[in-house]
Amino acid sequence: MKTVTLPIAFVPLVDAAPLIVAHEMGFAREEGIELDLISAPSWSSVRDMLAFGRVDAAHLLSPVPVAMAMGLGGVTQPISAVSVLSVNGNVIGVSRALEQRLRQAGFAFDFRDAGAAARALAAAAERPLVFGVPFPFSMHVELLHYWLEASDMARVGYEVRTVPPPLMAQALAEGDVDAFCVGEPWGSEAVESAAGALLLPGKAIWSLAPEKVLAVRTDWAETEPHLLGKLMRAVWRAGRWLDSPDSRTSAAEILAHKAYLDLPSEMIDRALTGHFTISGHAEQREVPGFVGFHDGVANFPWRSQAKWIASRLARRFGLDEGQARATAAQVFRSDIYRQQLINTSADLPGASEKLEGAIRETTAVASQKGQILLPPDAFFDGRIFDPEAS
Q1: InterPro entries annotated for this entry (predicted)?
Q2: Dihedral of the CA atoms 44, 50, 55, 57 (nearest 10)?
Q3: Which end of the chain has less neighbouring CB within 10 Å, N or C?
Q4: How many domains does one find in the chain?
Protein backbone atom coordinates (compact mmCIF):
# COMPACT_ATOMS: atom_id res chain seq x y z
CA MET A 1 0.00 0.00 0.00
CA LYS A 2 1.31 3.48 -0.91
CA THR A 3 2.34 5.56 2.12
CA VAL A 4 0.60 8.92 2.33
CA THR A 5 2.60 11.96 3.45
CA LEU A 6 0.72 14.53 5.54
CA PRO A 7 2.01 18.15 5.61
CA ILE A 8 1.79 19.45 9.17
CA ALA A 9 2.70 22.91 10.50
CA PHE A 10 4.30 23.62 13.86
CA VAL A 11 5.99 26.44 15.76
CA PRO A 12 9.42 25.61 17.24
CA LEU A 13 8.49 24.93 20.86
CA VAL A 14 9.01 22.08 23.30
CA ASP A 15 5.29 21.29 23.13
CA ALA A 16 5.55 20.50 19.41
CA ALA A 17 7.29 17.34 20.62
CA PRO A 18 4.42 14.86 20.03
CA LEU A 19 4.45 15.58 16.27
CA ILE A 20 8.25 15.63 16.04
CA VAL A 21 8.59 12.41 18.02
CA ALA A 22 5.81 10.72 16.04
CA HIS A 23 7.96 11.37 12.96
CA GLU A 24 11.46 10.78 14.35
CA MET A 25 10.66 7.66 16.43
CA GLY A 26 8.74 6.02 13.59
CA PHE A 27 5.28 5.98 15.21
CA ALA A 28 3.76 7.63 12.14
CA ARG A 29 5.50 5.22 9.77
CA GLU A 30 4.20 2.27 11.78
CA GLU A 31 0.69 3.64 11.24
CA GLY A 32 1.33 3.81 7.47
CA ILE A 33 1.84 7.56 7.07
CA GLU A 34 4.76 9.98 6.82
CA LEU A 35 4.77 13.46 8.35
CA ASP A 36 6.16 16.43 6.44
CA LEU A 37 6.76 18.78 9.38
CA ILE A 38 6.84 22.44 8.35
CA SER A 39 8.29 24.96 10.81
CA ALA A 40 6.32 28.23 10.85
CA PRO A 41 7.59 31.62 12.10
CA SER A 42 4.39 32.64 13.88
CA TRP A 43 0.99 31.41 15.04
CA SER A 44 -0.81 33.48 12.42
CA SER A 45 1.19 31.58 9.78
CA VAL A 46 0.19 28.22 11.27
CA ARG A 47 -3.47 29.22 11.47
CA ASP A 48 -3.55 30.45 7.87
CA MET A 49 -1.62 27.44 6.51
CA LEU A 50 -4.22 25.16 8.07
CA ALA A 51 -7.29 27.22 7.25
CA PHE A 52 -6.35 27.67 3.58
CA GLY A 53 -5.27 24.07 2.94
CA ARG A 54 -1.48 24.43 2.79
CA VAL A 55 -1.24 21.74 5.48
CA ASP A 56 -3.58 18.97 6.61
CA ALA A 57 -3.00 19.36 10.35
CA ALA A 58 -1.26 21.68 12.79
CA HIS A 59 0.23 22.15 16.24
CA LEU A 60 -2.08 24.96 17.34
CA LEU A 61 -2.80 27.15 20.36
CA SER A 62 -5.90 25.72 22.03
CA PRO A 63 -7.91 29.00 21.96
CA VAL A 64 -7.38 29.57 18.21
CA PRO A 65 -10.00 27.11 16.87
CA VAL A 66 -12.45 28.30 19.54
CA ALA A 67 -11.90 31.93 18.57
CA MET A 68 -12.29 31.09 14.87
CA ALA A 69 -15.63 29.39 15.58
CA MET A 70 -16.74 32.50 17.47
CA GLY A 71 -15.91 34.71 14.49
CA LEU A 72 -12.87 36.31 16.10
CA GLY A 73 -9.60 37.05 14.32
CA GLY A 74 -10.86 37.36 10.75
CA VAL A 75 -10.45 33.70 9.65
CA THR A 76 -13.53 31.54 10.10
CA GLN A 77 -12.69 28.20 8.46
CA PRO A 78 -14.21 25.48 10.73
CA ILE A 79 -11.37 23.79 12.62
CA SER A 80 -11.62 20.71 14.85
CA ALA A 81 -9.36 20.18 17.86
CA VAL A 82 -9.21 16.39 17.76
CA SER A 83 -6.80 15.91 20.68
CA VAL A 84 -4.79 17.93 23.17
CA LEU A 85 -1.08 17.76 22.34
CA SER A 86 0.13 19.20 25.67
CA VAL A 87 -0.97 20.64 28.98
CA ASN A 88 0.86 23.52 30.69
CA GLY A 89 4.42 24.36 29.51
CA ASN A 90 4.43 28.20 29.69
CA VAL A 91 6.56 30.51 31.81
CA ILE A 92 6.13 34.13 32.87
CA GLY A 93 9.30 36.20 32.90
CA VAL A 94 10.27 39.78 33.75
CA SER A 95 12.94 42.21 32.55
CA ARG A 96 16.18 42.78 34.42
CA ALA A 97 14.87 46.15 35.64
CA LEU A 98 11.69 44.59 37.06
CA GLU A 99 13.69 41.72 38.54
CA GLN A 100 15.93 44.20 40.34
CA ARG A 101 12.98 46.14 41.78
CA LEU A 102 11.29 42.92 42.91
CA ARG A 103 14.46 41.77 44.67
CA GLN A 104 14.92 45.16 46.32
CA ALA A 105 11.38 44.78 47.71
CA GLY A 106 12.31 41.37 49.14
CA PHE A 107 10.42 39.16 46.69
CA ALA A 108 11.81 35.63 46.91
CA PHE A 109 11.08 34.35 43.37
CA ASP A 110 9.65 31.15 44.85
CA PHE A 111 8.24 30.20 41.41
CA ARG A 112 5.02 28.88 43.01
CA ASP A 113 2.70 31.49 44.51
CA ALA A 114 0.85 33.31 41.72
CA GLY A 115 -1.08 35.57 44.09
CA ALA A 116 2.07 36.75 45.86
CA ALA A 117 3.82 37.28 42.52
CA ALA A 118 0.99 39.52 41.25
CA ARG A 119 1.04 41.61 44.43
CA ALA A 120 4.81 42.00 44.24
CA LEU A 121 4.66 42.92 40.55
CA ALA A 122 2.02 45.58 41.18
CA ALA A 123 4.12 47.09 43.98
CA ALA A 124 7.24 47.11 41.81
CA ALA A 125 5.63 48.55 38.69
CA GLU A 126 6.27 52.24 38.14
CA ARG A 127 3.77 52.47 35.27
CA PRO A 128 1.42 50.16 33.35
CA LEU A 129 3.40 47.08 32.27
CA VAL A 130 3.63 45.65 28.75
CA PHE A 131 3.44 41.85 28.55
CA GLY A 132 4.60 40.00 25.45
CA VAL A 133 2.55 37.01 24.30
CA PRO A 134 2.84 34.85 21.19
CA PHE A 135 -0.68 35.47 19.79
CA PRO A 136 -3.87 37.37 20.68
CA PHE A 137 -5.83 34.11 20.94
CA SER A 138 -3.71 31.95 23.19
CA MET A 139 -3.63 30.34 26.62
CA HIS A 140 -0.86 32.84 27.40
CA VAL A 141 -3.32 35.72 27.07
CA GLU A 142 -6.08 33.95 28.97
CA LEU A 143 -3.78 32.98 31.84
CA LEU A 144 -2.39 36.52 32.08
CA HIS A 145 -5.82 38.15 32.19
CA TYR A 146 -7.18 35.56 34.65
CA TRP A 147 -4.14 36.11 36.90
CA LEU A 148 -3.89 39.89 36.72
CA GLU A 149 -7.45 41.19 36.42
CA ALA A 150 -8.36 40.38 40.03
CA SER A 151 -5.05 41.63 41.44
CA ASP A 152 -3.56 45.05 42.14
CA MET A 153 -2.14 44.90 38.61
CA ALA A 154 -5.63 45.85 37.39
CA ARG A 155 -5.18 49.17 39.21
CA VAL A 156 -1.62 49.66 37.92
CA GLY A 157 -2.65 48.72 34.39
CA TYR A 158 -1.13 46.41 31.82
CA GLU A 159 -1.03 45.94 28.07
CA VAL A 160 -0.69 42.67 26.15
CA ARG A 161 1.42 42.83 22.98
CA THR A 162 2.08 40.10 20.39
CA VAL A 163 5.68 38.90 19.91
CA PRO A 164 6.63 35.65 18.09
CA PRO A 165 8.07 33.14 20.62
CA PRO A 166 11.64 33.02 19.21
CA LEU A 167 11.83 36.84 19.43
CA MET A 168 10.58 37.16 23.02
CA ALA A 169 14.00 37.37 24.69
CA GLN A 170 15.11 40.02 22.20
CA ALA A 171 11.92 42.04 22.78
CA LEU A 172 12.55 41.91 26.53
CA ALA A 173 16.20 42.92 26.16
CA GLU A 174 15.35 45.85 23.90
CA GLY A 175 12.61 47.13 26.22
CA ASP A 176 9.72 46.49 23.83
CA VAL A 177 8.04 44.52 26.62
CA ASP A 178 8.48 44.56 30.41
CA ALA A 179 7.48 40.94 30.91
CA PHE A 180 6.18 37.98 28.94
CA CYS A 181 4.25 34.74 28.98
CA VAL A 182 5.68 32.26 26.49
CA GLY A 183 6.21 28.55 25.92
CA GLU A 184 9.53 26.91 26.58
CA PRO A 185 12.37 27.02 25.73
CA TRP A 186 11.94 30.71 24.87
CA GLY A 187 11.58 31.77 28.52
CA SER A 188 14.83 30.02 29.38
CA GLU A 189 16.39 31.72 26.37
CA ALA A 190 15.65 35.06 28.07
CA VAL A 191 17.55 33.86 31.15
CA GLU A 192 20.47 32.53 29.11
CA SER A 193 20.77 35.78 27.16
CA ALA A 194 20.64 37.82 30.41
CA ALA A 195 17.49 39.61 29.23
CA GLY A 196 15.50 38.79 32.36
CA ALA A 197 14.39 36.29 34.99
CA LEU A 198 11.56 33.80 35.29
CA LEU A 199 8.76 34.69 37.70
CA LEU A 200 6.24 31.83 37.48
CA PRO A 201 5.39 28.70 35.54
CA GLY A 202 2.01 28.95 33.82
CA LYS A 203 0.73 26.00 35.84
CA ALA A 204 0.93 28.18 38.98
CA ILE A 205 -2.13 29.98 37.56
CA TRP A 206 -4.05 26.94 36.23
CA SER A 207 -2.48 23.62 37.08
CA LEU A 208 -3.91 21.72 34.09
CA ALA A 209 -4.34 24.17 31.23
CA PRO A 210 -4.83 22.68 27.72
CA GLU A 211 -2.00 24.42 25.90
CA LYS A 212 -1.72 23.08 22.34
CA VAL A 213 -4.10 20.94 20.29
CA LEU A 214 -3.83 18.74 17.23
CA ALA A 215 -6.00 20.75 14.83
CA VAL A 216 -7.41 19.81 11.44
CA ARG A 217 -9.95 21.37 9.11
CA THR A 218 -13.35 19.94 9.94
CA ASP A 219 -14.06 19.09 6.29
CA TRP A 220 -10.74 17.18 6.09
CA ALA A 221 -11.64 15.22 9.24
CA GLU A 222 -14.92 14.24 7.59
CA THR A 223 -13.45 13.26 4.21
CA GLU A 224 -10.23 11.59 5.47
CA PRO A 225 -11.20 9.75 8.68
CA HIS A 226 -8.73 6.91 8.06
CA LEU A 227 -5.77 9.25 7.63
CA LEU A 228 -6.90 11.24 10.65
CA GLY A 229 -7.06 8.07 12.73
CA LYS A 230 -3.53 7.09 11.71
CA LEU A 231 -2.25 10.55 12.63
CA MET A 232 -4.07 10.62 15.98
CA ARG A 233 -2.81 7.19 16.98
CA ALA A 234 0.78 8.05 16.03
CA VAL A 235 0.66 11.29 18.04
CA TRP A 236 -0.98 9.53 21.00
CA ARG A 237 1.85 6.97 21.06
CA ALA A 238 4.41 9.78 20.86
CA GLY A 239 2.83 11.52 23.85
CA ARG A 240 2.95 8.29 25.86
CA TRP A 241 6.64 7.89 24.97
CA LEU A 242 7.39 11.50 25.91
CA ASP A 243 5.88 11.20 29.39
CA SER A 244 8.19 8.31 30.26
CA PRO A 245 11.10 9.66 32.38
CA ASP A 246 13.44 7.35 30.45
CA SER A 247 12.68 9.24 27.23
CA ARG A 248 13.62 12.76 28.32
CA THR A 249 17.27 12.80 27.30
CA SER A 250 16.50 11.34 23.89
CA ALA A 251 13.57 13.70 23.44
CA ALA A 252 15.69 16.76 24.23
CA GLU A 253 18.32 15.65 21.72
CA ILE A 254 15.68 15.12 19.02
CA LEU A 255 14.06 18.51 19.61
CA ALA A 256 17.45 20.24 19.60
CA HIS A 257 17.98 19.30 15.95
CA LYS A 258 18.42 22.19 13.51
CA ALA A 259 15.17 21.31 11.72
CA TYR A 260 13.16 21.76 14.92
CA LEU A 261 14.23 24.04 17.80
CA ASP A 262 17.92 24.48 16.87
CA LEU A 263 18.92 25.12 20.50
CA PRO A 264 21.15 23.28 22.98
CA SER A 265 19.49 20.12 24.31
CA GLU A 266 20.34 21.20 27.86
CA MET A 267 18.00 24.19 27.55
CA ILE A 268 15.19 22.03 26.17
CA ASP A 269 15.74 19.48 28.93
CA ARG A 270 14.68 22.06 31.54
CA ALA A 271 11.06 21.97 30.37
CA LEU A 272 10.99 18.18 30.03
CA THR A 273 12.42 17.60 33.53
CA GLY A 274 10.90 20.65 35.27
CA HIS A 275 14.36 21.62 36.54
CA PHE A 276 14.71 25.36 35.84
CA THR A 277 17.39 27.98 36.07
CA ILE A 278 15.29 31.08 36.70
CA SER A 279 17.86 33.89 36.74
CA GLY A 280 21.40 34.97 36.05
CA HIS A 281 22.13 34.21 39.70
CA ALA A 282 21.93 30.48 38.82
CA GLU A 283 18.89 30.01 41.08
CA GLN A 284 17.28 26.62 40.52
CA ARG A 285 13.58 25.75 40.88
CA GLU A 286 11.76 22.44 40.49
CA VAL A 287 8.36 22.29 38.78
CA PRO A 288 6.98 18.72 38.77
CA GLY A 289 4.73 18.18 35.75
CA PHE A 290 5.81 21.44 34.12
CA VAL A 291 4.54 20.16 30.77
CA GLY A 292 2.46 17.03 30.13
CA PHE A 293 1.92 15.04 26.95
CA HIS A 294 -0.05 11.97 28.01
CA ASP A 295 -0.48 11.05 31.70
CA GLY A 296 -3.83 11.80 33.33
CA VAL A 297 -5.58 11.57 29.92
CA ALA A 298 -3.89 14.82 29.03
CA ASN A 299 -4.73 14.23 25.36
CA PHE A 300 -8.50 14.05 25.84
CA PRO A 301 -10.22 17.18 24.42
CA TRP A 302 -12.55 17.98 27.31
CA ARG A 303 -15.44 20.12 26.08
CA SER A 304 -15.45 21.88 29.44
CA GLN A 305 -11.96 23.19 28.68
CA ALA A 306 -13.21 24.61 25.36
CA LYS A 307 -16.15 26.21 27.20
CA TRP A 308 -13.78 27.84 29.71
CA ILE A 309 -11.80 29.34 26.84
CA ALA A 310 -15.01 30.51 25.15
CA SER A 311 -16.31 32.11 28.34
CA ARG A 312 -13.10 34.06 28.78
CA LEU A 313 -13.13 35.22 25.14
CA ALA A 314 -16.82 36.14 25.28
CA ARG A 315 -16.34 38.33 28.35
CA ARG A 316 -13.32 40.05 26.82
CA PHE A 317 -14.99 40.73 23.46
CA GLY A 318 -18.49 41.46 24.74
CA LEU A 319 -20.16 38.41 23.16
CA ASP A 320 -23.00 36.24 24.43
CA GLU A 321 -21.37 33.79 26.83
CA GLY A 322 -24.00 31.06 26.53
CA GLN A 323 -23.77 31.04 22.74
CA ALA A 324 -19.99 31.08 22.93
CA ARG A 325 -19.95 28.00 25.17
CA ALA A 326 -22.32 26.14 22.86
CA THR A 327 -20.14 26.98 19.87
CA ALA A 328 -16.92 25.96 21.65
CA ALA A 329 -18.35 22.58 22.63
CA GLN A 330 -18.47 21.69 18.91
CA VAL A 331 -14.77 22.53 18.43
CA PHE A 332 -13.10 20.21 20.97
CA ARG A 333 -13.99 16.89 19.33
CA SER A 334 -14.19 14.35 22.12
CA ASP A 335 -16.46 12.34 19.78
CA ILE A 336 -13.71 11.94 17.17
CA TYR A 337 -11.15 11.17 19.89
CA ARG A 338 -13.33 8.32 21.14
CA GLN A 339 -13.95 6.97 17.64
CA GLN A 340 -10.30 6.95 16.63
CA LEU A 341 -8.73 5.64 19.84
CA ILE A 342 -11.30 3.13 21.02
CA ASN A 343 -9.37 0.15 19.61
CA THR A 344 -6.05 1.17 21.17
CA SER A 345 -4.85 0.69 24.74
CA ALA A 346 -6.06 4.21 25.55
CA ASP A 347 -8.60 4.45 28.35
CA LEU A 348 -11.52 6.77 27.61
CA PRO A 349 -13.33 8.84 30.25
CA GLY A 350 -17.02 8.23 30.76
CA ALA A 351 -17.87 11.93 30.49
CA SER A 352 -16.78 14.61 28.02
CA GLU A 353 -17.06 17.51 30.47
CA LYS A 354 -15.99 18.10 34.05
CA LEU A 355 -15.91 20.89 36.59
CA GLU A 356 -12.68 22.72 35.77
CA GLY A 357 -10.62 23.61 38.84
CA ALA A 358 -12.45 21.27 41.22
CA ILE A 359 -9.83 18.50 41.56
CA ARG A 360 -7.44 19.10 44.47
CA GLU A 361 -5.97 15.59 44.72
CA THR A 362 -5.40 12.86 42.14
CA THR A 363 -8.87 11.39 41.61
CA ALA A 364 -10.22 8.23 39.99
CA VAL A 365 -13.08 8.81 37.52
CA ALA A 366 -15.41 6.55 35.56
CA SER A 367 -13.84 5.30 32.36
CA GLN A 368 -14.02 2.55 29.76
CA LYS A 369 -11.32 0.45 31.44
CA GLY A 370 -11.54 1.87 34.96
CA GLN A 371 -7.93 3.02 34.98
CA ILE A 372 -8.10 6.81 34.73
CA LEU A 373 -6.68 8.98 37.50
CA LEU A 374 -7.15 12.71 36.91
CA PRO A 375 -4.43 14.99 38.31
CA PRO A 376 -5.20 18.22 40.23
CA ASP A 377 -6.54 20.97 37.98
CA ALA A 378 -6.93 23.90 40.42
CA PHE A 379 -6.86 27.58 39.55
CA PHE A 380 -4.58 29.70 41.75
CA ASP A 381 -7.54 31.55 43.27
CA GLY A 382 -9.59 28.44 44.01
CA ARG A 383 -12.41 29.30 41.63
CA ILE A 384 -14.32 26.45 39.93
CA PHE A 385 -15.71 26.65 36.40
CA ASP A 386 -19.01 24.84 35.84
CA PRO A 387 -19.49 24.32 32.08
CA GLU A 388 -23.25 23.93 32.54
CA ALA A 389 -23.79 27.05 34.66
CA SER A 390 -25.72 29.87 33.03
Answers
A1: NrtA/CpmA_ABC-bd_dom
A2: 110
A3: N
A4: 2
Provide the residue-wise pLDDT of the chain in tens; the chain has 390 residues.
678 999 999 999 999 999 999 999 999 999 999 999 999 999 999 999 999 999 999 999 999 999 999 999 999 899 999 999 999 999 999 999 999 999 999 999 999 999 999 999 999 999 999 999 999 999 999 999 999 998 889 999 999 999 999 999 999 999 999 999 999 999 999 999 999 999 999 999 999 999 999 999 999 999 999 999 999 999 999 999 999 999 999 999 999 999 999 999 999 999 999 999 999 988 999 999 999 999 999 999 999 999 999 999 999 999 999 999 999 999 999 999 999 999 999 999 999 999 999 999 999 999 999 999 999 999 999 999 999 986
What's 55's DSSP letter? -
159 and 299 within one domain: no
Residue 304's domain is classified under what CATH number?
Answer: 3.40.190.10
Cα–Cα distance, 265 to 3 (Å, whole number):
32
Q: What is the DSSP letter of 282?
A: -
Size of the chain in residues:
390
Within this chain, do residues 109 and 72 fall inside the same structural domain, yes or no? Answer: no
Taking the complete model, does pTM exceed 0.70, yes or no?
yes
Q: Is residue 72 part of a domain?
A: yes
Residue 154 φ then ψ, to 5°: -65, -35
Q: 342 and 253: one domain?
A: yes
Please give the residue range of the domain that contains residue 55: 4-87+209-260+292-347
Residues 135 and 124 in one domain: yes
* Residue 362 lies inside a defined structural domain of this protein: no
